[in-house]
Structures are given as C-alpha cells and as structure tokens.
Automatic annotation (TrEMBL):
Pfam families (alphabetical): Kinesin
Keywords attached to this entry: ATP-binding, Coiled coil, Cytoplasm, Microtubule, Motor protein, Nucleotide-binding
InterPro entries referenced in this protein's UniProt entry, alphabetically: Kinesin-like_fam (IPR027640), Kinesin_motor_CS (IPR019821), Kinesin_motor_dom (IPR001752), Kinesin_motor_dom_sf (IPR036961), P-loop_NTPase (IPR027417)
Annotated region described as Disordered, given as residue ranges: 391-410, 449-482, 536-560
Molecular function GO terms recorded: ATP binding; microtubule binding; microtubule motor activity
Protein name, UniProt field: Kinesin-like protein
One GO BP annotation of this record: spindle elongation
Organism for this UniProt entry: Rhizopus delemar
Cellular-component GO terms for this entry: cytoplasm; microtubule; microtubule associated complex
Length: 832
C-alpha cells in the first residue's frame, strides 16, 4: 500500500461570446501558479491557461493516471467548477465533437486504452486476457440513475469489511473496442439531464460518473487484476440569483449545492490535519458516498478545477480555487487490486460461516437444554410406570435377567403366558434354518437350541397379577406389562444367541427385529398412558414438544401406534409437528438477530450500514413466517404463541429499521451534535451578514454605486449560508425523525426542549430564509408582495401546527406580532 495526495490541475477556459474580455488572472510562465487580482497566489500540480489544448491536458495530467490504472490501481478524475467553466468540455463526457482536436479526456482515454491492450496482446501472446466494462451513472436531485439502463432501479452502494466501496446493481456494458466505449458515452450523455440556464445554454443539471473497469486475467497464475477509472463531471456550483433559476431549476440548484456542500465538507475533514483519523461525513450525500473511495480511499485522484477567465465570475473562481486548494491536502492509500475477486469471495465466505457458526452454537445450546428437560421427564415417567405396574428398575431388570438366564437352560415356555414378540419369531425361524436338531417343546411355543451353551427357554413365569392369568379377552395394563417384561427377557436371549453365532446373523434383520420391538414398546406406553386418561395427553404434548426442537438434522416424525390412531389425525399431527419445528427455528433465528443488532448498536465502532443487511435478513425470515401464519393453526395453541412471539420480535425490528433505536447510536448522536454546532455557527454568521447587508442597502439607497459589488457579495454569501442551513436543518430533521409519516411529532420533540431565545432564533430563521428566497426570485423593488405572501403562508403553516404543539412558548411565540420591514427583514418582537 502506498500513500499519495490528491493532485489538482487548474484549467482556465477561453472567453466565450457574451463575456467581456477583462482579465484578472495572471499566469506565471512555466510555473504551476496563478495570481488572482494581483494579490492572491495559488499553486497547483498543473495550471492550464486558456491556450492549452485538450491533448496537452491529457498527456500531462491524465496519462500518468492511465499508467497507474493499467498496473491495477484505481483512478478518479473529478471535474469541479462553476456552471459553464468547461468541466464537460474538458472531460469530453458530452461526446459530440466532430473535430478530434476538441476530444476531451474520456475519448482520448478510450483510444489510449485499446491501443495499450492491442500492444499487450501482441507482446504477451495470449498469456493475459483483457476485459473492459463501462458504466454511466447520473446523480440527479439525490437519485442515482443508470444512464445505460434507465429502467434499472436496483443500484446500491456497498462497503466491504476493509472499507472498499462498490456499487452493486449497476448495468455494466462489455466493451470490445474504442468505438464501443464512445457509443456508451454518447448513449449516456444523451440520457443525461441538461437544461439551458442564463449562464450556460447546455448546462449539466446533475453529477455524472462514467466508469471504466479493466480486468486483466493472468491465466498461468489464475489471478485477476481489476482496476476502475471513474470520470466524474460534477454539476456546476451556481447561485440561484445569478442563473435566474426558478421552479424545478431552483430545486435542482439546491440539491446540486447540497451535494457539493457535502463534498466540500468531506474535503475539509480529510484535509484538516487536526481531524485526521476522525469521523468523515461521507454519508451526508449520495455523491460523497459514491466517491468515498476516491477521497481518502483506494484511488489515485485528480481534481480538475475549471474556472472562467471573466471578471464577472471572479467570486466563483475564487471559491473554486479555495475548494481545490483544500483538496490538495487529502491523502489516499492506494493498492493494486490483485486477485480482488477471490479474496472478496473468501472474506464473504468467512463472514457467512462465522454467522452460521454463531447461530448453530445457539441452537445446540437450546437443544441441550431441551434434551435435559426431556431426560428429566423421561425419568419421572419411568418412575411413575414402575410405581404403577411394578416394572423393575434397569438395575433390577438386569439382575432379573441374569437370574432368569440361569434358570432358562433346558426349560420350556408356557404358551399362554409368554407372548411371541417379533424377535422371538425371528429366533424361531433362525433356529429352524440353522439348527435342525431343535426340539419343539409344544405347539406355538418358542424353540430352544439343543446346544448346551445356548440359553434355554425359561420356565413359565407366574402371573404378575391375578387378572393377567385369568382374563384373555380384555387386555389389561398388567397383561401388557407382563408381555413387556417377557419381551425384554427374550430380546436379551436373542442378542446372546446372535453374539454367539455372529457369522450366521443378518444384521439388517436384527435391526428390523429391534425396530418392531421398539414399536411394540411404544404401543405399550401409549396404551398405559391412554388408560391413565390425562397422562396420554401429556405424552402426546411432550412428543410434540420434543419434535419442535430446532432441527440440526432432518426432523423425526412422531411415531404413534398406527392401529390405535385415526389416520387423519396422524397426518394432521405430522403436519403440525413439522410446521411447529419450522416456526420454532425461525423465531429463534430472529431472536438471535435482534440480540445481535442490539449489541452492535451499542458498539460505536460498528457503522450503521453494517447493521442493515442483518436486519434485512431478519425481515426475510419474518416474511416467510408470516406466510405460514395463514395456515390453519386452530389445532395448535403452542404454534399461535410462537407466531405471536415472532410478531413481537418483528415489531422490535421495525423499530430498529425505522431508526428509532439507531438514533441513539453513538455515531448518530455525534453527528447530530456536530450538525447542531454547525447550524448555530452558521446562524451567527448569517445574522452578522444580514446586519452588514442592512448597512449596505442603506448606503445603496444613497446612490453609492461602489457598494453594489459589496451588496452582491453579501447576497451571494447569504444565499450560500441559507442553503447550508437549509441542508443541515433537513439532515437534523431526517436523523431525529422517527419515521417519515411522523415528522410533525418529531418536530415538536425537537422544539420542545429548546429555550425561548433559541425558539425565536429558529423561527425567525425559517421566516428569514423564506424572505431571502423571495428576494432571490424577485427584483429588489418588487419583492414586497410576493415575499409577504410567502411569509404569511409560512405563518399559517406554523399556526396549523400550534394545536399539536403542547408548548406554551411556541404558542405564545406564534401570537407575537411580527413586522415585515421594507428592506426584506422581519422583526419579531415580544412586545405588542
Ligand atoms: N478549454 C476550452 N476551449 C474552448 N471552449 C471551451 C473550453 N472550455 C469550455 N468551453 C466552452 O464553454 C462552454 C461551457 O462549457 P461546459 O459546458 O463544458 O461547462 P460546464 O462546466 O460543464 O458547465 P455545466 O456545469 O453547466 O454543465 C461550452 O460551450 C464549451 O464548448
């Protein structure tokens, strides 16, 4: 990584027709210096007088950037200057010149690039593949427009983890030859918003960014070098009065100035050594956001400051020179974008995996908790079963089995008391096949191997209860328990047999036998629970609950005794169980996301922008969840609860998204504080200017023509400051408002804590701004009517708010008489 400063080139265009050739700029031969009015010196990297040709500008200022661009560095040229100062002409963005000598920077760059690629291909003999893409964006009234695909509305600005800015969703045209690039330029410049103003018959009313991407694929090393070149033609900075702009044109002017003001603030922050490393207000406008990489980021940047030589534009020229002077001090940190695509992909993958791991960890925790609970329940159920039906504990069972095995050798079973389980049947079949010498003790009884080392059949067991031995028509709980006990015993015997005769055993059959056996056990438990009434319901609930654990693998379906269940009910239960599982998992995911967002918001080092994708993810989850809500959930109240909790989480999300909480993010508080300070400072400045202006106007009435210049200067400054205050006010309002629909309420919130003096200042400021705008749009002597009308309208609007304003100071203030003075000032006095 290397550090380089923003380079600045000054270009002074020739006089144009309507300008009086009265010069005030002095050029020093062979030196990059200019002197304004013989007293202000400026030094830049390049200074071009009106006689310098397009070719000279390209070769001296742009060619070095081109050389870096093809090595893999990003590059940006920013054309800055007042309306009609020659930005579009120099950049060549509005490509319609027939004379090649008049070609601007971009057409020359196109030729340069494809000539270079041809040479490379000839020299490198196909070891590197070259691809060129172009995009063309326009920023008009804070809307980003894709000039190569006007219908495209998917553009967004993204910042990766190391701060690189990328624009996604922008249409990128594949370029194969120089003329393709020029076609793009032409297509885009036709679509660009231009209009005629008093200062330029074809004035660009927007900021335009033409970008060329070069992708060099080094095939042997499987790596790519991607570099971008942005050509930025900024809209002209203009003052409403000077351009005589009204209506839409005036609105454009305000928006253009707001963008340029934000750009100026970014330049100031970056060029101020005392503020190095501090917050840079890139987010204040789309222009600065789009250009974030070119200012203080990973790009070699050249500012082409364009000025008019005309004396009448002296003020604008001076302000452009000051602007450019500040830009000189900005340092960028540039790196070659090697294998950028691969590293980006890996970074994203790591980020994604980290997030997944976080979620999985949480799920696993939840699963463990639920498992523990289930284990506890299982224990108590077993204990209850033992209590009810004398089932021996596992320890007892083991002992019992050992005792039984000891007595089983050579014994014969009683067919009435020993139920035949599938395992036993298998044993019988297996014996028939493998041990021809089996002795069949009785009809229907199980078979026992004649081999002495194999376990012999047990003796008939005495009935556990009297009913078990006497009742054969109705199966009682004790019958079943007895059956259960016998089955355990037999399974154990079978296992022993299998262990001894491994080579003859088909393992899949063993599994099958044990599966049937498990099913049998479940039937038994179900029967017992059913016979215990409410306990059956509990069992079903617990099964449902067990199934609603967050699933790391495929969810298991609840196995119910098929012959005891209504098949429709079984299907319905299965469906609900699966739904329940999904909802539960999603609710947990959302919960985690909300927690994460809250913790992120309390961390001042995390930019708000990083939080947004996570919120979006949560909203996607929420939407799927809400679709499921339409499913008939009457049968499951637990699911309704889940949906309700999902809704409450969603409302939390909505709050975050509507900036209610982001507002209290430390960065936001800092911005608001900063803006308030700036606003107060500007208001003070404006007050002083208004006083000065008043004096000038007074003198002006005394026919002191020499004051005209001063008055004009004041007007312009007041214009500028009003715009800045306007812009800052809007920003404060945007940041402090809870939602767009609720601006009135938030205005009250902003006004309520203000002291009376501050409120007066604020209101008078609003009114004065109206008056100033009125002055800008009408002539000095006819202002009274229109301004008074505007002023009255403003008051009506404020009074309308009065009802909703629960603040006696505001109410009192609105009743205060206000005097409209003929010089355009408004007197708000507390006294009648
Ligand atoms: N160096 C130059 N040589 C000859 N003519 C020039 C030069 N610079 C500008 N012009 C002419 O001056 C006029 C205004 O220039 P241009 O449209 O480029 O201004 P601009 O700064 O882009 O204005 P806007 O911001 O309003 O778009 C055009 O007619 C253009 O041809």
């Amino acid at each position: 990584m290397s550090v380089c400063t923003v380079r600045v080139a000054l270009r002074v265009r020739p006089f144009i027709e309507k300008e009086e050739a009265k010069n005030y700029i002095t050029f020093l031969p062979n030196q990059p210096n200019v002197i304004i009015n013989q007293n202000r010196h400026f030094t830049f990297d390049h200074v071009y007088s009106p006689s310098v040709s397009q070719e000279e500008v390209y070769q001296s200022a742009i060619r070095p950037l081109f050389e870096q661009f093809v090595k893999g560095y990003n590059a940006t040229i920013l054309a800055y200057g007042q309306t009609g100062s020659g930005k579009t002409y120099s950049m060549g963005i509005s490509y319609h010149h027939q004379d090649p000598k008049q070609y601007g920077i971009v057409p020359r760059f196109a030729d340069n690039l494809f000539h270079w690629i041809d040479t490379q291909i000839n020299n490198n003999k196909d070891t590197i593949a070259y691809r060129v893409k172009a995009s063309f964006l326009e920023l008009y009234n804070e809307d980003v427009i894709d000039l190569l695909d006007i219908a495209n509305t998917n553009i967004s600005i993204r910042e990766d983890t190391i701060g690189n800015i990328s624009w996604s969703g922008v249409h990128e045209q594949e370029i194969r030859k120089s003329s393709d690039l020029l076609n793009c330029l032409y297509q885009g410049s036709v679509a660009r918003t231009t209009a005629s103003t008093d200062m330029n018959s074809e004035s660009s009313r927007s900021h335009a960014i033409f970008s060329v991407t070069l992708i060099q694929s080094v095939q042997s090393m499987k790596k790519e070098i991607i570099s971008k070149f942005h050509f930025v033609d900024l809209a002209g900075s203009e003052r409403l009065k000077k351009t005589n702009a009204v209506g839409d044109r005036a609105k454009e002017g305000i928006s253009i100035n707001a963008g340029l003001l934000a750009l100026g603030n970014v330049i100031s922050a970056l060029s101020d050594d005392t503020k190095r490393g501090q917050y840079i207000p890139y987010r204040n406008s789309k222009l600065t956001r789009l250009l974030q990489d070119s200012l203080g980021g990973n790009s070699q940047t050249l500012m082409l400051a364009c000025v008019s030589p005309a004396d009448s534009n002296q003020h604008e020229t001076l302000s452009t020179l000051k602007y450019a002077n500040r830009a000189k001090r900005i340092t960028n940190k540039v790196t070659i974008n090697q294998v950028q695509s691969e590293t980006e992909a890996l970074k994203e993958e790591i980020h994604r995996l980290r997030e997944e791991a976080l979620l999985s960890d949480a799920f696993i925790k939840e699963v463990h908790i639920e498992l523990d609970e289930l284990r506890k329940k299982n224990k108590s159920l077993e204990a209850a079963l033992r209590l009810n039906s004398h089932i021996p504990s596992r320890k007892q069972q083991k002992k019992h089995l050992e005792d039984d095995n000891a007595t089983l050798v050579g014994s014969v079973s009683d067919e009435k008391r020993i139920p035949v389980t599938p395992a036993m049947t298998l044993a019988r079949k297996k014996k028939r096949l493998t041990h021809p010498g089996t002795v069949i003790a009785r009809k229907k009884s199980i078979m026992y191997p004649s081999s002495p080392q194999l376990p012999a059949p047990q003796q008939a067991q005495p009935p556990l209860t009297t009913s078990a031995s006497t009742t054969t028509t109705t199966t009682t709980k004790d019958d079943l328990l007895e059956k259960h006990r016998q089955r355990i015993k037999k399974e154990s015997q079978l296992l022993k047999q299998f262990r001894l005769n491994k080579e003859e055993v088909d393992i899949s059959r063993i599994i099958h036998v044990f599966q049937s056996s498990i099913k049998e056990q479940k039937q038994l438990i179900y029967f017992i629970e059913k016979s215990q009434g409410s306990s059956a319901k509990e069992s079903l609930d617990s099964k449902m609950k067990r199934s609603s654990l967050p699933q790391l693998k495929q969810p298991k379906k609840t196995t119910m005794p098929v012959e005891k269940m209504n098949p429709h009910l079984q299907v319905e239960i299965d469906r609900l169980v699966v739904e329940n599982e999904n909802i539960s998992a999603q609710v947990q995911q959302m919960g985690l996301i909300v927690k994460r967002v809250f913790s992120m918001m309390n961390n001042a080092t995390i930019p708000i922008q990083q939080i947004k994708p996570i919120l979006n993810k949560a909203v996607v989850i929420h939407n799927t969840l809400m679709k499921q809500k339409t499913v008939d959930l009457r049968k499951s109240s637990s699911q309704l609860d889940q949906v309700k909790s999902a809704e409450s989480i969603y409302h939390e999300l909505i709050k975050i998204i509507s900036l209610e909480n982001i507002k209290s993010h430390p960065i936001c508080l800092e911005i608001i504080q900063d803006l308030k300070q700036k606003k107060i400072q500007l208001m003070r400045e404006q007050k002083e200017l208004l006083m000065e202006r008043k004096e000038i106007i007074t003198k002006f009435y005394h026919d002191d023509a020499s004051q005209e210049e001063g008055q004009q200067y004041m007007d312009e400054r007041i214009d500028e400051i009003s715009l800045q205050i306007d812009y800052i006010s809007r920003q404060i309002q945007e940041i402090t408002s809870t939602s767009k629909q609720n601006i009135k309420q938030s205005l009250i919130d902003v006004l309520q804590p203000l002291k009376e003096g501050e409120l007066r200042a604020l209101l008078s400021l609003f009114i004065q701004q109206d008056v100033i705008r009125g002055i800008a749009q009408s002539s000095m002597y006819q202002l009274a009517e229109s301004t008074l009308y505007q002023y009255q309208q403003g008051l009506v609007q404020l009074r309308r708010l009065e009802k909703t304003m629960n603040n006696h100071i505001v109410q009192g203030l609105l009743k205060t008489p206000v005097k409209f003075l003929p010089n355009g000032l408004v007197l708000i006095s507390g006294k009648k």
